[in-house]
Amino acid sequence: MDPRSEVLLRQPELFQGPVLLAGLPADDLLGRLPDAHGWCWHAGDQAALDARFPERSHFGVDVPSRGFDSAVVFLPKAKDLTDYILNAVASRLAGREVYLVGEKRSGIEGASKQLNPFGKPRKLDSARHCQLWQVTVANAPEAKPLESLAQTYELPLEEGLLKVISLPGVFSHGRLDRGSALLLEHLDKLPSGHLLDFGCGAGVLGAAVKRRYPHNTVTLLDVDAFAAASSRLTLAANGLEAEVLTGDGIDAAPMGLNAILSNPPFHVGVHTDYYATENLLRKAAKHLKNGGELRLVANSFLKYQPLIEEHLGACTIKAEGQGFRIYRAKRG
């Protein structure tokens, strides 16, 4: 059981009615709170919850339309995403309770101040290296459309300006990260056919590839619903058409790809997690056609070359700079 869930279950009488659990972990909490309903934006967690508790968790970027008498927000990593989620639930709960739970190392103490616009927050519990805060919504806000919180920036590419639209919680929100910047400089000689942008974030790489190689089929894949929504906005802002998927890692990707392009994530919450990238490297060959190419940018300290060569074939370093390397390998 996740320690944040354990803290809630120390006071189960607070959560007996129809309660919304926003950003809940994929544990047994729904089993312990039979009237609770989840709101999830992580495709892996959603799949695990669906398997155990069918139809009891909503997946996406919008607050569920169903009614609830209170809400628990599991503290997201990004401050602006926390603001959006708290606003979305508080707008539906005038005079009722909103709870915020999180680990101390995730910054729950400071994040509790984000409850101030709605009323006077108070700490209910501190245990399992977590804290639980509560506010009665005295000042119910107007619900903010998610798009109103988007940040937009433009990239000068050879084919013209590319407009990038990112939403709260998406990797490198509102700016181009150094790894993607390096990879954008080395999109030459990609194979024709079907290309995948794995871990697409705001859709920078997928949109740039579709702009540069318009006759190729491009699919963008991310585990996060907010990233997928950002990618769709980026594609639309540039008049581009591509498929955007949510799924938990490379297993959710199409087969028969001609190229996989990725600036893969390795942070989940406050924890460092290399699993998604290592799983990609182990299984890329299964998703690529013969002669298909993997082109990946990663921090130079991550020793991915031996893993790529073990599972895919000869791997070269195509470029490096500012602490990043681009690895290139083809399926033999």
What keywords describe this structure?
single chain; 332 residues; alpha/beta; Rossmann fold; seven-stranded mixed beta sheet; 26% helix
Please tell me about this protein's structure.
- It is a single chain.
- The chain folds into 2 domains: 3-136, Vaccinia Virus protein VP39 (Rossmann fold); 150-330, Rossmann fold (3-Layer(aba) Sandwich).
- The protein contains 10 helices and 18 strands.
- The chain has helices at residues 3-9, 29-32, 43-52, 79-90, 108-111, 178-184, 204-212, 225-237, 275-287, 305-311, and strands at residues 19-22, 37-40, 57-59, 70-74, 97-103, 122-127, 130-136, 151-157, 160-166, 194-198, 217-222, 243-246, 257-262, 267-268, 271-272, 288-299, 315-321, 324-330.
- Strands 3-2-1-4-5-7-6 form a 7-stranded mixed sheet, with helices on both faces. A 7-stranded mixed sheet has the order 12-11-10-13-16-18-17, sandwiched between helices. A two-stranded antiparallel sheet has the order 8-9.
- A hairpin with a 2-residue loop joins strand 8 (151-157) and strand 9 (160-166).
- Helix 9 (275-287) packs parallel to helix 10.
- The mean pLDDT is 95.
Short recap of the structure:
This protein is of the alpha/beta class.
**Helical content band:** 25-40%
* Molecular shape: elongated
Mean of pLDDT: 95
Spans of at least 5 consecutive residues whose pLDDT stays below 50 are none
* CATH level-four homologous superfamily name of the largest domain: Vaccinia Virus protein VP39
Give the name of the CATH architecture of the largest domain: 3-Layer(aba) Sandwich
